[in-house]
TrEMBL record, chain A:
Belongs to the bacterial solute-binding protein 2 family. Its main location: membrane. The chain crosses the membrane at residues 20-40, 52-70, 77-95, 101-124, 131-149, 169-189, 220-239, 299-318, 339-359. CDD domains: PBP1_ribose_binding (cd06323), TM_PBP1_transp_AraH_like (cd06579). InterPro entries: ABC_transp_permease (IPR001851), Peripla_BP_I (IPR028082), SBP_2_dom (IPR025997). GO terms for cellular component: plasma membrane. SUPFAM superfamilies: Periplasmic binding protein-like I. It is found in: Cell membrane. Keywords: Cell membrane, Membrane, Signal, Transmembrane, Transmembrane helix. This is Transporter. It is a multi-pass membrane protein. Residues 370-620 form the Periplasmic binding protein domain. It comes from Streptomyces fuscichromogenes.
TrEMBL record, chain B:
One of its GO terms (molecular function) is ATP hydrolysis activity. It is found in: Cell membrane. Pfam families: ABC_tran. Keywords: ATP-binding, Cell membrane, Membrane, Nucleotide-binding, Repeat, Translocase, Transport. It is a peripheral membrane protein. It comes from the Bacteria. GO terms for cellular component: plasma membrane. This is Ribose import ATP-binding protein RbsA 2. Residues 8-243, 249-496 form the ABC transporter domain.
């Protein structure tokens, strides 16, 4: 073994080859970078590579913390929630309660550590499986973040927000924080008592205990470290968005775990390195960035990401299996191993190139380019915005790139950053959160790219125009509709949208404002059902247990209204009128069938169409109004025929 | 055509893994109704050879013939079809299924698509009777002891109507009584015409059970001899040199009592255990498996709690159930389950050697890696650990070298009382002697050694005093010169004391 390394380090090329062969993830990353550079001219620029770094930062920092846990044969599912909770605590104490910023930061970090200690305590002394203990913390952390913030994002103190800026105008601070935390993680793992204990505990807990390691105490510390790293990640995330979002970092724990495993750690414990984890996080970021630049369809992106994760880990397993020799490998074994790795790398490249070029919708030059970042595509309303925008783009000869932020403000920030760095003519944004989008929109403004907001506005930043229907007015209309149907008297329930989103807040405000005029209407319950049909069904069924005598339902969108109708069964439309919001095709069909009494119809495809139209005008430097209201209308059975959706 | 009684013939088998040649020209044959012993040091290639028969590996060169025809064994199915069944050291049983379900796993008799439990259990009953174990087919495997698990494995092999039964060190984990029972079953199978490949490290078992012996050394078959060959000759064939003395104990003058245990009791497990171990002394603990020996030493070491009694090292009492207190006082434990409790298998030799001293080598949370490396290098050299380098994973070391690493980590921690629980289980003769030499060096340096062993000749050969445990109590103590196999066995099967008297004594603070 020793002579082997000596031999190889003597010649540089052989040394590099050795490094690649010994590290499948690094090979995968390099293959990925080469493939992306070949496919997109925008990829290999300094600006874009820095973008990739920024976009990897939060996942990487979370993943460093998760590395400690995974090396010690545990799992931490709570890191995403703890990140959001810590950031919320920081913003809440500093902004809403005037705590000095320095103290607020300490408080936020302490929150992360305490959450970690609770995990560690449950696991080490309560003997809970780490999966269960941290799953519980995932829910508790998220819940507390929502409780503290009251469901709305809180502005982040300016001094901390500088963590999201750049140094000297080009070096992003999140990248620096990522590198710093990475060095700390590497140091902890490699050089400290607790780090060496992690490997021993993960490798064989009983042997570690019988060798005098205080396993329980170490576990407390390991999970506390993971919580600490999650808190730092949360602060960086919120700093980038200048806003602490209670729903931030949702699902990031899985990205973090993926990064650790791609980086060569085993979920069985005992192996793993900080450098590997960094590579894992970079692979995920390069992939997302590249697929954005290549304009791969939002749906196919998820498929490609999943396939690449599997292939990256497969590459490493195959390499390891080939290299699992008891003694130093001889020449013959080495060759077989090389061939295996090269073959797999080749398959990997071909698969990636084929997939992306297949899914690549092709960008002919000369046409004006516009990017559209939608908050989600998991809802027919936004799918219709996309349809309207795409139809208009085709008509006008515009090259339109559509991305899906999956209701994650920070992912949207990444996508907007990618749009900005690939030099589009204009950007249309449908913000996940109006506050969180402001930094990204500002940097687009700085780059001279006009931004059109659609459906939801962007706060604290200049947009060319806002194309939207009025949610508050729509909410008032919905309230008025149900009150009049009930004759001004009766008990109703309200199904609210996803806590923390502006649409949910504004519509709820509209409902409340509208109901003020009808003192005879009693709201017996209002509960969130997250704009989701299944949740609408569940929540409504539960509410019916408590309030069987309910006489009317207002839902903040059609999806939840349709869920409520399922729960109400035959009562829907006959004895209990349900009013929805949005006027989606499903909603309108229900209105036609009489199960949905009314829907406050927006015209999503109109929103998309008008947004593209105005973005194009902005590209051509034509004057456009600063706000464009697309009318909302109450659709009932009487006028449904006139709505095509 | 060859012998019609020949079940299996292996000719010139070669198998190499990247970087290592595991087997290099092995010949072997097996006849109907014989016990053919495979003998060799750990790492000689026995396991690789039997994995060729079970289909886990395929040979690079050479041929395997079954009943005179060349066959290729590519997996468990091929092997099953040829009537070859293998019983590994680690059993392939599902702990939460019943005995009957395990025996017929994957081949449960069915009726209308549902498992026919009644028939399955009746069939299992017959098989269990054939191997002579009084176990209910409905018992859960988790609840069985290790000897019975083995019998279930044999029953499973019988249910497959195996004509070739491969047994990998079946006696390593059994007490002498259980070994006798196993031998009876094996003899019965032999009489039924089954060919048995038997792997063992216990030379005395060869004469007792075997018919022929094939010796493998460094991946080559070096000889085929009758089982009646003298042990010295077998050892010479196996290690390639002769071993002067199997138990080279050198007695030293004993000093003050280092470890003293008084009235140690855990209700229902062990009762009123008292003994002392002096500096420079090796005290052996003999007894049947289940007599409570491992439980006692684990309690002494603080790995498990106890209800009453006291453990003192050089007069200072240790806190109950506190490994770190024992460690600080200078006690070290080399556990019975080397892989499960003694080693971090996927960590390097260096890391394993430094495990106990990790805390001592830490200043302000940072480990002195250089110091750890130097220490590991020194001790590995001193113990003669055969490895590719300190970075080699201990998983890939042979059993003897693994055990040296476990002992080495305690030597680094300046252990004064070393507890060895089955220190040479599964270790070949050459490495055994090296471990005995280590024990000599330790006692010469003034340390005390407490050694549990189920290998009677080892206990008798290496101990200065022998404690015999039976049913959770110390049944008696024998000085080295009065300890004979018969004397030890007589005590081991006795029923010492009665619960009432000991409880009283303990109450009086004996």
């Amino acid at each position: 073994m020793a002579t082997d390394t000596l031999k190889n380090s003597s010649t540089g090329a052989a040394g590099v080859r050795r490094l690649l062969l010994d590290n499948g993830a690094l090979t995968a990353l390099i293959v990925l970078v080469i493939a992306m550079s070949a496919l997109s001219g925008d990829f290999l620029t300094t600006d874009n590579l820095l973008n990739v770094g920024v976009q990897a930062a939060v996942t990487a920092i979370l993943a460093f913390g998760a590395t400690f846990v995974i090396v010690s044969a545990g799992i931490d599912l709570s890191v995403g929630s703890v990140a959001a909770l810590s950031a919320t605590v920081l913003a809440w104490s500093a902004t809403s309660h005037g705590v000095p910023v320095f103290l607020a930061v300490v408080l936020a970090v302490a929150t992360g550590i305490v959450a970690g200690l609770v995990n560690g305590f449950l696991i080490a002394y309560g003997k809970l499986p780490s999966f269960i203990a941290t799953l519980a913390m995932l829910s508790v952390g998220r819940g507390l973040a929502l409780v503290i913030s009251g469901g709305s994002p809180i502005a982040f103190p300016d001094s901390v927000s500088h963590l999201g800026d750049t140094l000297g105008g080009w070096l992003p601070v999140p990248v620096l924080v990522m590198i710093l935390m990475g060095l700390i993680a590497a140091f902890v793992l490699g050089r400290t008592y607790i780090g060496r204990s992690m490997y021993a505990i993960g490798g064989n807990e009983e042997a570690a205990r019988l060798s005098g390691l205080r396993v329980n105490k170490q576990k407390l510390a390991i999970y506390a470290l993971s919580g600490l790293f999650a808190a730092v990640a949360g602060i960086v995330l919120a700093a980038r968005l200048s806003s602490a979002q209670p729903q931030a970092a949702n699902g990031y724990e899985l990205d973090a775990i993926a990064a650790v495993v791609i980086g060569g750690a085993s979920l069985a414990g005992g192996t793993g390195k900080a450098s590997g984890t960094l590579i894992g996080a970079l692979i995920l970021a390069v992939l997302r960035n590249g697929l954005n630049l290549l304009n791969v369809s939002a749906f196919w992106q998820q498929v490609v990401i999943g396939v690449v994760i599997a292939l990256a880990v497969l590459l490493d397993t195959v390499r390891r299996k080939a290299g699992a020799t008891p003694v130093a490998a001889g020449a013959g074994g080495g060759k077989g191993r090389q061939a295996g790795t090269y073959a797999l790398a080749a398959v990997f490249t071909v698969a990636l190139v084929a997939a992306t070029s297949l899914l690549h919708t092709g960008s002919a030059s000369g046409k004006p380019k516009i990017g559209l970042s939608l908050s989600t595509l998991n809802n027919p309303f936004f799918v219709q915005i996309r349809a309207g925008a795409q139809a208009e783009a085709r008509k006008q000869g515009v090259d339109l790139t559509v991305t899906d932020a999956q209701n994650d403000a920070s992912q949207q920030a990444n996508q907007l950053q990618n749009f900005t760095s690939s030099g589009l003519g204009a950007i249309i944004v449908n913000p996940v959160d109006s506050d969180a989008a402001s930094n990204s929109v500002k940097s687009a403004d700085k780059a001279g790219i006009p931004v059109v907001a659609v459906d939801r506005g962007v706060n604290n930043a200049t947009t060319a125009t806002l194309v939207a229907s009025d949610n508050v007015a729509g909410g008032e209309l919905a309230a008025k509709t149900i009150a009049e149907k009930l004759g001004g008297h009766g008990k109703i329930v309200i199904l609210q949208g996803q806590a923390g989103t502006s649409a949910a807040r504004e519509r709820a405000q509209g409902f409340a404002d509208g109901l003020k005029a009808y003192p005879g209407i009693q709201v017996v319950a209002q509960q969130p059902a997250d704009f989701d049909r299944t949740k609408g069904l569940d929540v409504m069924s539960n509410l019916l247990q408590a309030h069987p005598d309910v006489q009317g339902v207002i839902a903040a969108n059609d999806e939840m209204a349709l869920g409520a109708i399922k729960a109400l069964g035959s009562k829907a439309g006959s004895s209990v009128p349900v009013v929805g919001f949005d006027g989606t095709p499903d909603g309108l069909t229900a209105v036609k069938n009489g199960t949905l009494y009314a829907s406050v119809a927006q015209q999503p495809s109109q929103l998309g169409k008008i947004a593209v139209d105005n973005a194009l005008k902005a590209v051509k430097d034509q004057r456009i109004p600063s706000a464009i209201k697309v009318p909302v209308k109450v659709v009932t059975k009487d006028n449904v025929a006139g709505f095509t959706g | 055509m060859s012998d019609p009684d020949e079940l299996l013939r292996i000719e010139g088998i070669r198998k190499s893994f990247p970087g290592v040649v595991a087997l290099d020209g092995v010949d072997f044959d097996l006849r109907r109704g014989e016990v053919h012993v495979l003998l060799g040091e750990n790492g000689a290639g026995k396991s690789t050879l039997i994995k060729m028969l079970s289909g886990a590996y395929t040979p690079d060169a050479g041929r395997i013939l079954a009943g005179g025809e060349e066959v290729r064994i590519h997996g468990a199915q091929d092997s099953e079809r040829l009537g070859i069944a293998t019983i590994y050291q680690e059993f392939n049983l599902v702990p939460d299924l019943t005995v009957a379900e395990n025996i017929f796993l994957g081949r449960q008799p069915r009726r209308f698509g549902m498992i026919d439990r009644k028939r399955m259990e009746a069939d299992a009953e017959i098989l269990l009777q054939r191997v002579g174990v009084p176990v209910s087919p409905r018992a859960r495997v988790r609840d069985l002891g290790i000897a019975r698990l083995q019998m279930v494995e044999i029953a499973k092999a019988l249910s497959l109507e195996a004509r070739v039964l491969v047994m990998d060190e079946p006696t390593a984990v059994l007490t002498s009584e259980e070994v006798e029972k196993l031998f009876a079953i094996v003899r019965q199978l032999r009489a039924d015409g089954v060919g048995i490949v038997f792997i063992t490290h216990h030379l005395e078992e060869i004469a007792a059970l075997g018919d022929r012996v094939t010796v493998i050394r460094d991946g080559k078959s070096v000889g085929q001899v009758p089982a009646a060959t003298p042990q010295d000759e077998l050892v010479r064939l196996m290690v390639g040199r002769s071993i002067e003395q199997q138990y080279p104990r050198e007695r030293t003058d004993t000093g003050a009592a280092l470890l003293s245990v008084q009235g140690l009791t855990r209700d229902g497990v062990f009762h009123d255990v008292s003994f002392e171990v002096h500096a420079g002394e090796v005290v052996g603990i003999a007894g049947l498996v289940g007599a409570g020996r491992t439980e006692v030493v684990r309690a002494v070491f603080g790995a498990d709690p106890y209800d009453r009694g006291a453990v003192r090292v050089s007069g200072t009492a240790l806190r109950r159930h506190d490994v770190n207190a024992a460690l600080t006082a200078g006690i070290g434990l080399v556990p019975e389950d080397r892989k499960g409790q003694g080693l971090v298998l996927d960590a390097s030799v260096e890391e394993n050697l430094g495990l106990v001293t990790l805390r001592k080598a830490t200043r302000a949370g940072i480990v002195d890696l250089k110091g750890q490396h130097t220490a590991a290098e020194r001790i590995a050299g001193q113990l003669g650990v055969r490895m590719a380098g300190l970075g080699q994973h201990v998983r890939t070391l042979s059993g003897g070298n693994q055990q040296k690493v476990v002992i080495g980590k305690w030597l680094l921690a300046d252990t004064r009382v070393l507890i060895l629980d089955e220190p040479t289980r599964g270790i070949d003769v050459g490495a055994k002697v090296e471990i005995y030499q280590l024990i000599n060096e330790l006692t010469a340096a003034g340390a005390a050694v407490l050694m549990i062993s189920s290998d009677l000749p080892e206990v008798l050969g290496m101990s200065d005093r022998v404690l015999v445990m039976a049913q959770g109590r110390i049944a008696g103590e024998l000085a080295a010169d009065e300890a004979t196999q018969d004397a030890v066995m007589a005590l081991a099967v006795s029923t010492p004391g009665t619960p009432t008297t000991t409880d009283k004594e303990a109450g009086r603070g004996h």
